[in-house]
TrEMBL record:
GO molecular function: DNA binding; phosphorelay response regulator activity
Pfam families: LytTR
Keywords: Membrane, Transmembrane, Transmembrane helix
Xref: PANTHER family: STAGE 0 SPORULATION PROTEIN A HOMOLOG, TRANSCRIPTIONAL REGULATOR-RELATED
SMART domains per record: LytTR (SM00850)
InterPro entries (UniProt xref): LytR-like, LytTR_DNA-bd_dom
Name of the protein in question: HTH LytTR-type domain-containing protein
Alphabetized PROSITE patterns for the sequence: HTH_LYTTR (PS50930)
Entry annotated with the keyword Transmembrane helix: yes
Domain HTH LytTR-type: 164-273
Transmembrane is among the record's keywords: yes
Membrane-spanning segments: 20-41, 53-76, 88-110, 130-147
């Protein structure tokens, strides 16, 4: 297997991690699962202070880590826009490493003999404890996000190419719906913009936007934002405007996509539900 094959393996599409799409609920879920795992199996050792025992120290470690993790998750969500296996693994490493750093500094307040913590052995011990206690919760939440996304989309968890049909029998587009960026009506045609894997390209199909919407109804992340536009909600980088209408900026796209005035409330609701 060559380098290209390895790279393609890590570029495989995967649903977004639950903690990435729902930072608040994801951080709380991570904290709860971590407490349950560590409380049951007790894989970690703390130099507890005279004031606190094992379980209070554990609870304070997890609470402090969760509070620090929430803004960190929002930051990661801003930059990790491409949902593939490589980014999923990177996300989990970043979350656990961040938790290890937070845990190291929390130890100065929670454990006995804080002055003895200023050395690399204690730092790496903190990192090891975080990976030991947090890896299973992070993997569980990844699986849960995978299951939830697949259930909402009504499609199998494996990558699946769908056929988008034209009104002309021999005209169609086979594509992974996650690679769609947006659709734009042009007279009696619809122009589909999508990521080919190397560049953003487009295909013109003879059809109406209503018929396209019907074909893509099983994919809730493909949203009809305007009578002339549909957009992949996971490709949105920025939103501007107000209740009179929005303008959307998408990944690798110069044009801004409109959201109709009468759809702003529904758009916000759908976007919040997905992440």
């Amino acid at each position: 297997m060559g380098i290209t094959s390895y790279l393609n393996f890590f570029k495989r599409k995967t649903p977004p991690h639950y903690m990435l799409m729902h930072p608040l609920k994801g951080a709380l879920g991570f904290g709860l699962l971590s407490v349950l795992f560590v409380a049951i199996y007790k894989p970690l050792f703390f130099n507890t202070s005279e004031k606190f025992g094992y379980y209070p120290v554990l609870a304070m470690y997890v609470l402090g880590s969760v509070l620090a993790l929430i803004p960190f998750l929002f930051l990661l969500r801003k930059y990790l826009r491409e949902y593939n296996l490589g980014n999923a693994l990177l996300f989990m490493v970043l979350v656990l490493s961040f938790g290890g750093v937070v845990g190291y500094f929390l130890g100065f307040a929670l454990e006995a003999h804080p002055n003895s913590r200023w050395h690399w052995a204690t730092f790496f011990d903190s990192m090891g404890n975080t990976y030991l206690g947090g890896s299973l919760p992070v993997l569980i939440l990844w699986w849960y996000g995978h299951f939830k996304f697949s259930k909402e989309a009504g499609t199998p968890t494996k990558n699946q190419s769908i056929r988008i049909r034209s009104e002309l029998k021999k005209e169609f587009l086979d594509i992974d719906p996650e690679n769609l960026i947006y659709l734009e009506a042009e007279g009696n045609y619809v122009k589909l913009f999508y990521d080919s894997g190397q560049e953003v390209t487009h295909k013109l199909l003879r059809s109406s936007m209503n018929k396209m919407e019907a074909q893509l109804k099983n994919f809730p992340f493909i949203y009809r934002s305007h009578r002339s536009y549909m957009v992949n909600l996971y490709k949105i980088e920025a939103k501007s405007g107000n209740s009179m209408g929005y303008r959307l900026r998408l990944t690798n796209i110069d044009a801004q996509i409109p959201v109709s005035r009468n759809k702003t409330t529904e758009f916000d609701t759908v976007l919040e539900k997905l992440g």
